[in-house]
Amino acid sequence: MNYFIFIITSAYVDLMRNKARTFLTTLGIVIGVASVVLLQAFGLGLKAYIKGQFDSLGTNLVFILPGNMFRAGGSGFGAGSMGSAISFDEKDLNSLKRASDAEIIVPSTMKSSKIEALGKSEYATIYGTSEEIFPTRNLEIDKGTFFLKSDINKRTKVAVMGPKIAEKLFGQAEFAVDQKISIDKITFKVVGVLKSKGGGGFGGPDFDSYVYIPYKTAFLVNNKKSFSSFVIKAISSERITDLKNETDKILLKRYKEEDFSVAESKEILNTVESIFSMLNMVLVAIGGVSLVVGGIGIMNIMYVSVTERIREIGIRRAMGALEKDILLQFLSESVLLSLLGGVLGLLLSFLIVLILRIFFPAYIDLSSMLMAIFVSSAIGVGFGVFPARSAAKLLPIEAIRYE
Questions:
Q1: Taking the domains of the chain in order of start, what are their residue ranges?
Q2: Is the pTM of this model over 0.70?
Q3: Percent of the chain scored above 70 by pLDDT?
């Protein structure tokens, strides 16, 4: 035990002789470890963010979309064949309402439109839907009220706004209630403003910028009188599979299998997460290149150190030091260099993540920490063994006579 303490202490003293060179040598490892750990932290945070977004949308939901995007044989979310690019209509809505495992069926039609109010104009997503979208998607009112089922049947020109678009048009979201807005030259009355839902990150939908209107009224600004999708809430989580099979059978009476897709929220979440996981793996591999560069830097410096200390090595060998003693001496210096870089890289990562958590739920887990220490140690051994062996193989007489 005392032997190894002596070796490590000697290595530390030798490294501290030239602090600037030691720091610059470890800088490559610091950057490499920080890159890999941070990319993993971003990946973990991204998964947590996506899961939070899906959880906030509601549970026990089944989504029906046009095109073959989720079925077997497709390549994942958004990658399958779009089939005949069908559009759903009220006949489909009425058919789906007969599904015995469905509690709520919500149609939707979306269009990006210019909204004008009080001399200001903004582009936002107009979401034509039913009054049941609000409990289904866990949307809560902040000011005013939701529109009602009667507003759909009467084709009332009323709107419920997300807080972000309301704030852009009226300065403060609460001022929007009872105000008039113009959508495609058609005047609507704002009856409510929603509580903030978030979203909009990483190309996802920005729910706070949606303007919800009754779907029959939406046919005034979307004269195709069609729906882009349906959201169906199952009566219980145990009946989701039955609901999917039932909706499949209903729609297959009118459409081909490749014309539409039926998926539950967990399937969409898993598909999106798998895409981001693959992307994160690629980014981590790119970050790993920095570790290799840092390892090469350590190897170069250790070779320089061997050349500078040839006489010292010769004297140690002449005084009885064995090959393994010299090998361990230089190998321990290499490992200490890389471990120092690993610890500093980890501390830098913690600092950056601590700042980022104000805006994004990134976090570093135990596996990332252990990986950082293991990888930095492995680099020290892997890139340090060759210069260490070179030092250990020097003959004592030649080393002492070296100029």
A1: 2-52+272-400, 108-226
A2: no
A3: 84
